[in-house]
Design goal:
Largest sheet: none
Structural class: mainly alpha
Shape: elongated
Radius of gyration: 28 Å
CATH architecture: Up-down Bundle
Number of strands: 0
CATH class: Mainly Alpha
CATH topology: Ferritin
Number of helices: 9
Length: 266
């Protein structure tokens, strides 16, 4: 506990430049930095993404409050409640900044969101707290917070043209670094089979969920493509056949066929 809050104290007093050394974007995100810059350049998209981030953070706060109710560890209960308060504060920050941007912008139709490219703290909304052990929950939270901190560090770098939004990510990034630190420390304390095994298990779970999301997106794309092919390629064939059959029909009423004699089975 002492080590955890000592880490938090150093992070809270760290400067913005120091945070760049504590949390760095992942190599994959750094390779896609031009795309992230394009995503965040549009002010309407930026505002909508901030509001979506607010919803995700609020959902995470509710999940962590439920985790604090279910755990039997008093130290984890206090840390989960502190974490939940931070998530709700992040939601308020993102919501306030998103609404401030929308008030300064003209109305515009919803455009391309690129949520798969620039997600928020995704993962907590996929978590089912009920039935989770403390070590599995801590491993999941550590990986989620680490990924969120790395993404937020990159978002902060590409938001040089919007100092107010960048300041929001600066504030949130300090808390994310603390969350990443305390979950790792507490996982090493409570894990029975070792923290590395739990982290690998959590990584496999995240990879499986990522595969399911990709498979669902691919299935949706293929389904849309097949429906359009049927509409533009298959249906015109039936239209042509129906028109040919209509031309062979005689106009007007058609006399009925003569009735067969009752003595015949046909």
């Amino acid at each position: 506990m002492v080590a955890t809050f000592r880490t938090w104290g150093s992070l809270a007093c760290a400067s913005v430049g120091r945070m760049d050394e504590v949390v760095r974007p992942s190599p994959f995100d750094r390779a896609l930095r031009p795309l992230h810059f394009w995503v965040w350049r549009d002010p309407h998209r930026r505002a909508r993404k901030l509001l979506r981030f607010a919803e995700t953070e609020a959902d995470g706060g509710r999940d962590l409050s439920r985790a604090a109710e279910l755990t039997f560890d008093p130290l984890l209960r206090r840390l989960y409640l502190r974490h939940a308060e931070d998530e709700l504060r992040h939601a308020a920050l993102f919501r306030a900044r998103g609404r401030a941007l929308l008030r300064c912008l003209p109305r515009a139709p919803a455009g391309f969101e690129a949520n798969w490219l620039a997600p928020g703290e995704r993962g907590l909304d996929d978590l089912r707290v009920t039935g989770e052990r403390d070590e599995s929950l801590l491993a999941f939270l550590h990986l989620s917070e680490k990924a969120a901190a790395q993404r937020f560090a990159l978002y902060r770098q590409v938001l040089g043209h919007d100092p107010a939004t960048r300041a929001v990510f600066d504030d949130v990034l300090h808390d994310e670094a603390f969350h990443m630190s305390y979950t790792q420390t507490q996982l090493a304390r409570v894990a029975v089979r070792g923290s590395r095994a739990r982290l690998w298990q959590a990584r496999m779970g995240r990879l499986w969920k990522a595969y399911l999301r990709a498979a669902a997106a691919l299935a949706s794309l293929l389904g849309t493509l097949l429906l359009r092919l049927q509409y533009f390629l298959v249906l015109p064939v039936f239209v042509v056949l129906a028109r040919r059959a209509a031309r062979r029909e005689r106009p007007g009423f058609v006399p009925p066929r003569s009735r067969s004699p009752l003595t015949s089975q046909y």
